[in-house]
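Quick one: co-fold with uridine 5'-triphosphate.
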Amino acid sequence: MKKINKVLIPCAGLGTRFLPATKSLPKEMFPIIDTPTLQYIVDEANKSGIDEIGIIISQAKPMIQSHFTVNEELEQRLRALNKNEEADLIHSIAKMAKITFINQPEPKGLGHAILCAEEFINGEDFAIMLGDDLIMNFDDENNPVMKQLVSAYEKYDASVLGVQEVPLEDVSKYGIIKVNKEDGRYLEMSGMVEKPKKEVTPSRYAVLGRYVLKNEIFDYLRKVTPNKNGEIGLTEGIDLLLRDEKVYAYNFIGTRYDIGNKFGYVKATIDFALRRDDLKDKVKEYLKKIGY
Ligand code: UTP
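Sure, here it is.
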Protein backbone atom coordinates (compact mmCIF):
# COMPACT_ATOMS: atom_id res chain seq x y z
CA MET A 1 0.00 0.00 0.00
CA LYS A 2 1.17 3.55 -0.76
CA LYS A 3 2.07 5.62 2.29
CA ILE A 4 1.78 9.36 2.87
CA ASN A 5 5.33 10.43 3.76
CA LYS A 6 5.15 14.17 3.17
CA VAL A 7 3.02 17.05 4.36
CA LEU A 8 3.02 20.66 3.24
CA ILE A 9 2.21 23.40 5.72
CA PRO A 10 1.62 26.66 3.83
CA CYS A 11 2.54 29.68 6.00
CA ALA A 12 3.31 32.35 3.43
CA GLY A 13 0.00 34.26 3.36
CA LEU A 14 -0.26 37.96 4.16
CA GLY A 15 -2.57 37.49 7.14
CA THR A 16 -4.37 40.75 6.39
CA ARG A 17 -7.22 39.94 8.79
CA PHE A 18 -4.79 40.13 11.68
CA LEU A 19 -2.87 43.31 10.93
CA PRO A 20 -0.99 45.00 12.50
CA ALA A 21 0.29 41.87 14.33
CA THR A 22 1.06 40.10 11.05
CA LYS A 23 3.20 42.98 9.75
CA SER A 24 6.25 41.14 11.09
CA LEU A 25 4.82 38.13 12.96
CA PRO A 26 3.34 35.29 10.86
CA LYS A 27 -0.06 34.28 12.27
CA GLU A 28 1.16 30.65 12.25
CA MET A 29 3.53 31.71 15.05
CA PHE A 30 0.80 33.21 17.25
CA PRO A 31 1.12 31.44 20.59
CA ILE A 32 -1.76 29.60 22.16
CA ILE A 33 -0.66 30.43 25.73
CA ASP A 34 3.03 29.46 25.34
CA THR A 35 3.22 27.30 22.22
CA PRO A 36 3.09 28.60 18.63
CA THR A 37 0.12 27.37 16.59
CA LEU A 38 2.51 25.88 14.03
CA GLN A 39 4.20 23.73 16.67
CA TYR A 40 0.85 22.09 17.43
CA ILE A 41 0.42 21.43 13.71
CA VAL A 42 3.89 19.88 13.36
CA ASP A 43 3.01 17.71 16.36
CA GLU A 44 -0.21 16.62 14.59
CA ALA A 45 1.85 15.57 11.55
CA ASN A 46 4.15 13.55 13.84
CA LYS A 47 1.25 11.83 15.56
CA SER A 48 -0.22 11.01 12.13
CA GLY A 49 2.93 9.11 11.13
CA ILE A 50 4.09 11.62 8.49
CA ASP A 51 7.89 11.90 8.50
CA GLU A 52 8.77 14.76 6.20
CA ILE A 53 7.40 18.24 6.57
CA GLY A 54 7.64 21.04 4.00
CA ILE A 55 6.86 24.42 5.51
CA ILE A 56 6.06 27.02 2.85
CA ILE A 57 7.32 30.38 4.01
CA SER A 58 7.82 33.93 2.86
CA GLN A 59 11.33 35.26 3.25
CA ALA A 60 9.84 38.49 4.59
CA LYS A 61 9.08 36.64 7.87
CA PRO A 62 12.08 34.54 8.95
CA MET A 63 10.71 33.77 12.41
CA ILE A 64 9.25 30.38 11.47
CA GLN A 65 12.59 29.07 10.32
CA SER A 66 14.36 30.16 13.50
CA HIS A 67 11.74 28.51 15.73
CA PHE A 68 12.44 25.11 14.20
CA THR A 69 16.23 25.48 14.09
CA VAL A 70 18.65 24.71 16.94
CA ASN A 71 19.68 27.85 18.88
CA GLU A 72 22.88 26.82 20.65
CA GLU A 73 23.51 30.21 22.18
CA LEU A 74 20.14 30.29 23.93
CA GLU A 75 20.48 26.65 25.02
CA GLN A 76 23.89 27.35 26.59
CA ARG A 77 22.58 30.44 28.31
CA LEU A 78 19.68 28.47 29.78
CA ARG A 79 21.99 25.66 30.95
CA ALA A 80 24.31 28.21 32.60
CA LEU A 81 21.25 29.41 34.54
CA ASN A 82 20.52 25.80 35.51
CA LYS A 83 17.37 25.85 33.41
CA ASN A 84 18.01 22.44 31.87
CA GLU A 85 14.37 21.53 31.40
CA GLU A 86 13.79 24.69 29.36
CA ALA A 87 17.00 24.07 27.37
CA ASP A 88 15.84 20.51 26.58
CA LEU A 89 12.42 21.82 25.58
CA ILE A 90 13.73 24.33 23.04
CA HIS A 91 16.24 21.78 21.73
CA SER A 92 13.48 19.20 21.17
CA ILE A 93 11.51 21.60 18.90
CA ALA A 94 14.30 21.58 16.33
CA LYS A 95 14.28 17.76 16.42
CA MET A 96 10.52 17.26 16.13
CA ALA A 97 10.61 16.29 12.47
CA LYS A 98 12.57 16.44 9.27
CA ILE A 99 11.62 19.92 8.12
CA THR A 100 12.37 21.52 4.74
CA PHE A 101 11.62 25.22 4.21
CA ILE A 102 10.18 26.10 0.81
CA ASN A 103 10.02 29.68 -0.39
CA GLN A 104 6.90 31.14 -1.96
CA PRO A 105 8.31 34.31 -3.56
CA GLU A 106 4.95 36.11 -3.64
CA PRO A 107 1.64 35.41 -1.87
CA LYS A 108 -0.24 34.37 -5.01
CA GLY A 109 -2.74 32.07 -3.34
CA LEU A 110 -2.84 28.65 -1.75
CA GLY A 111 -2.73 26.81 -5.09
CA HIS A 112 0.40 28.75 -6.04
CA ALA A 113 1.98 27.95 -2.64
CA ILE A 114 1.44 24.23 -3.32
CA LEU A 115 2.91 24.54 -6.84
CA CYS A 116 6.07 26.04 -5.27
CA ALA A 117 6.56 22.70 -3.44
CA GLU A 118 6.31 20.36 -6.44
CA GLU A 119 10.02 19.51 -6.40
CA PHE A 120 9.94 18.69 -2.67
CA ILE A 121 6.92 16.39 -3.15
CA ASN A 122 8.78 14.61 -5.97
CA GLY A 123 5.95 12.65 -7.57
CA GLU A 124 4.33 11.29 -4.38
CA ASP A 125 0.80 11.68 -3.05
CA PHE A 126 0.94 14.07 -0.10
CA ALA A 127 -0.89 15.87 2.69
CA ILE A 128 -1.59 19.55 3.33
CA MET A 129 -2.24 21.12 6.72
CA LEU A 130 -3.02 24.85 6.72
CA GLY A 131 -0.74 26.66 9.12
CA ASP A 132 -3.49 28.78 10.62
CA ASP A 133 -6.02 25.97 11.14
CA LEU A 134 -5.52 24.46 14.57
CA ILE A 135 -7.56 21.26 14.94
CA MET A 136 -7.53 19.22 18.14
CA ASN A 137 -9.09 15.85 18.82
CA PHE A 138 -9.18 16.46 22.57
CA ASP A 139 -10.86 13.11 23.32
CA ASP A 140 -8.21 11.03 21.56
CA GLU A 141 -4.94 12.89 21.06
CA ASN A 142 -3.40 9.87 19.36
CA ASN A 143 -5.96 9.99 16.58
CA PRO A 144 -5.57 13.54 15.22
CA VAL A 145 -7.43 14.75 12.15
CA MET A 146 -4.58 14.15 9.73
CA LYS A 147 -4.35 10.52 10.86
CA GLN A 148 -8.09 10.14 10.22
CA LEU A 149 -7.65 11.51 6.69
CA VAL A 150 -4.65 9.29 5.96
CA SER A 151 -6.79 6.25 6.90
CA ALA A 152 -9.53 7.44 4.52
CA TYR A 153 -6.91 7.90 1.74
CA GLU A 154 -5.67 4.36 2.35
CA LYS A 155 -9.25 3.04 2.16
CA TYR A 156 -9.97 4.61 -1.26
CA ASP A 157 -6.51 5.32 -2.75
CA ALA A 158 -7.95 8.72 -3.68
CA SER A 159 -7.73 12.35 -2.60
CA VAL A 160 -9.56 13.10 0.67
CA LEU A 161 -10.52 16.49 2.12
CA GLY A 162 -11.27 17.11 5.80
CA VAL A 163 -14.72 18.64 6.27
CA GLN A 164 -17.22 19.54 8.97
CA GLU A 165 -20.70 21.03 8.78
CA VAL A 166 -20.87 24.78 9.40
CA PRO A 167 -23.95 26.95 10.06
CA LEU A 168 -25.71 28.09 6.85
CA GLU A 169 -24.84 31.75 7.62
CA ASP A 170 -21.14 30.85 7.46
CA VAL A 171 -20.92 28.88 4.17
CA SER A 172 -19.79 32.04 2.33
CA LYS A 173 -16.51 31.97 4.30
CA TYR A 174 -15.39 28.51 3.14
CA GLY A 175 -14.78 26.12 0.30
CA ILE A 176 -17.97 24.02 0.23
CA ILE A 177 -18.32 20.55 -1.26
CA LYS A 178 -21.04 19.03 -3.41
CA VAL A 179 -21.88 15.57 -2.13
CA ASN A 180 -22.64 12.70 -4.46
CA LYS A 181 -22.96 9.84 -1.91
CA GLU A 182 -22.80 9.70 1.89
CA ASP A 183 -21.55 6.69 3.83
CA GLY A 184 -21.30 7.61 7.52
CA ARG A 185 -18.34 9.97 7.83
CA TYR A 186 -17.20 9.28 4.24
CA LEU A 187 -18.59 11.53 1.52
CA GLU A 188 -18.08 11.02 -2.19
CA MET A 189 -17.75 14.44 -3.81
CA SER A 190 -19.12 15.69 -7.12
CA GLY A 191 -17.78 19.25 -7.01
CA MET A 192 -16.45 22.06 -4.90
CA VAL A 193 -17.16 25.79 -4.81
CA GLU A 194 -15.30 28.59 -3.07
CA LYS A 195 -17.31 30.82 -0.71
CA PRO A 196 -20.86 30.26 -2.13
CA LYS A 197 -23.82 32.44 -1.09
CA LYS A 198 -26.07 30.63 1.39
CA GLU A 199 -28.98 30.71 -1.10
CA VAL A 200 -27.06 28.59 -3.63
CA THR A 201 -24.70 26.53 -1.47
CA PRO A 202 -24.49 22.86 -2.51
CA SER A 203 -24.14 21.72 1.16
CA ARG A 204 -23.02 22.87 4.61
CA TYR A 205 -19.84 20.74 4.51
CA ALA A 206 -16.87 23.12 4.64
CA VAL A 207 -13.26 22.15 3.88
CA LEU A 208 -11.31 22.99 7.01
CA GLY A 209 -7.58 23.05 6.43
CA ARG A 210 -6.64 19.37 6.05
CA TYR A 211 -6.15 17.51 2.75
CA VAL A 212 -4.56 14.37 1.36
CA LEU A 213 -4.07 14.77 -2.39
CA LYS A 214 -3.05 12.59 -5.28
CA ASN A 215 0.06 13.86 -7.02
CA GLU A 216 -1.98 14.63 -10.18
CA ILE A 217 -3.25 17.79 -8.42
CA PHE A 218 -0.15 19.60 -9.72
CA ASP A 219 -1.32 19.15 -13.34
CA TYR A 220 -4.71 20.61 -12.47
CA LEU A 221 -3.30 23.53 -10.46
CA ARG A 222 -1.34 24.52 -13.56
CA LYS A 223 -4.65 24.72 -15.46
CA VAL A 224 -6.34 27.04 -12.95
CA THR A 225 -6.99 30.55 -14.24
CA PRO A 226 -5.66 33.06 -11.71
CA ASN A 227 -8.30 35.37 -10.19
CA LYS A 228 -8.33 39.15 -10.63
CA ASN A 229 -5.61 39.50 -7.96
CA GLY A 230 -3.40 36.98 -9.76
CA GLU A 231 -4.04 34.28 -7.11
CA ILE A 232 -4.29 30.56 -7.89
CA GLY A 233 -6.86 28.80 -5.70
CA LEU A 234 -6.49 25.27 -4.39
CA THR A 235 -10.29 24.84 -4.42
CA GLU A 236 -10.40 25.52 -8.17
CA GLY A 237 -7.61 22.96 -8.73
CA ILE A 238 -9.48 20.29 -6.74
CA ASP A 239 -12.70 21.07 -8.62
CA LEU A 240 -10.85 20.37 -11.90
CA LEU A 241 -9.26 17.18 -10.50
CA LEU A 242 -12.59 15.70 -9.49
CA ARG A 243 -13.97 15.97 -13.01
CA ASP A 244 -11.46 13.25 -13.95
CA GLU A 245 -11.09 11.13 -10.81
CA LYS A 246 -12.93 10.35 -7.58
CA VAL A 247 -12.34 12.68 -4.65
CA TYR A 248 -13.72 12.03 -1.16
CA ALA A 249 -14.35 14.12 1.91
CA TYR A 250 -14.14 12.87 5.47
CA ASN A 251 -16.29 14.40 8.22
CA PHE A 252 -13.51 14.43 10.82
CA ILE A 253 -13.63 14.24 14.61
CA GLY A 254 -12.01 17.30 16.18
CA THR A 255 -12.43 20.91 17.24
CA ARG A 256 -11.15 23.44 14.75
CA TYR A 257 -9.88 26.94 15.51
CA ASP A 258 -9.24 29.47 12.74
CA ILE A 259 -6.20 31.24 14.15
CA GLY A 260 -6.21 33.73 11.23
CA ASN A 261 -9.52 35.08 12.53
CA LYS A 262 -9.60 37.18 15.72
CA PHE A 263 -12.49 35.38 17.38
CA GLY A 264 -11.02 31.97 16.45
CA TYR A 265 -7.78 32.96 18.15
CA VAL A 266 -9.58 34.15 21.29
CA LYS A 267 -11.59 30.89 21.45
CA ALA A 268 -8.43 28.79 21.19
CA THR A 269 -6.73 30.77 23.95
CA ILE A 270 -9.71 30.39 26.31
CA ASP A 271 -10.26 26.68 25.59
CA PHE A 272 -6.57 25.79 25.95
CA ALA A 273 -6.28 27.80 29.20
CA LEU A 274 -9.33 26.00 30.62
CA ARG A 275 -7.71 22.63 29.79
CA ARG A 276 -4.38 23.35 31.48
CA ASP A 277 -3.85 22.26 35.07
CA ASP A 278 -1.56 25.21 35.76
CA LEU A 279 -4.13 27.77 34.58
CA LYS A 280 -7.71 26.52 34.64
CA ASP A 281 -8.58 27.36 38.26
CA LYS A 282 -7.07 30.84 38.07
CA VAL A 283 -8.82 31.57 34.76
CA LYS A 284 -12.20 30.35 36.05
CA GLU A 285 -11.81 32.40 39.21
CA TYR A 286 -10.86 35.47 37.18
CA LEU A 287 -13.84 35.09 34.83
CA LYS A 288 -16.14 34.82 37.86
CA LYS A 289 -14.57 37.91 39.38
CA ILE A 290 -15.23 40.00 36.27
CA GLY A 291 -18.82 38.78 36.11
CA TYR A 292 -18.84 35.69 33.82
P1 UTP B 1 -5.60 32.27 4.23
O1 UTP B 1 -6.39 32.73 3.09
O2 UTP B 1 -6.31 31.96 5.51
O3 UTP B 1 -4.40 33.24 4.60
O4 UTP B 1 -4.72 31.04 3.78
P2 UTP B 1 -4.08 34.74 4.25
O5 UTP B 1 -4.26 35.04 2.83
O6 UTP B 1 -2.73 34.95 4.87
O7 UTP B 1 -5.16 35.48 5.19
P3 UTP B 1 -5.90 36.87 5.10
O8 UTP B 1 -7.20 36.53 4.45
O9 UTP B 1 -5.03 37.82 4.31
O10 UTP B 1 -6.08 37.29 6.52
C1 UTP B 1 -4.66 29.79 4.47
C2 UTP B 1 -3.22 29.37 4.69
O11 UTP B 1 -2.48 29.38 3.47
C3 UTP B 1 -1.31 30.17 3.57
C4 UTP B 1 -1.56 31.11 4.74
O12 UTP B 1 -0.33 31.48 5.36
C5 UTP B 1 -2.46 30.29 5.66
O13 UTP B 1 -1.75 29.49 6.57
N1 UTP B 1 -1.09 30.89 2.28
C6 UTP B 1 -2.06 31.64 1.71
C7 UTP B 1 0.16 30.78 1.68
O14 UTP B 1 1.07 30.09 2.18
N2 UTP B 1 0.38 31.47 0.51
C8 UTP B 1 -0.57 32.23 -0.07
O15 UTP B 1 -0.30 32.83 -1.14
C9 UTP B 1 -1.83 32.32 0.55
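If it helps, The CA atoms of residues 223 and 237 lie 8 Å apart.
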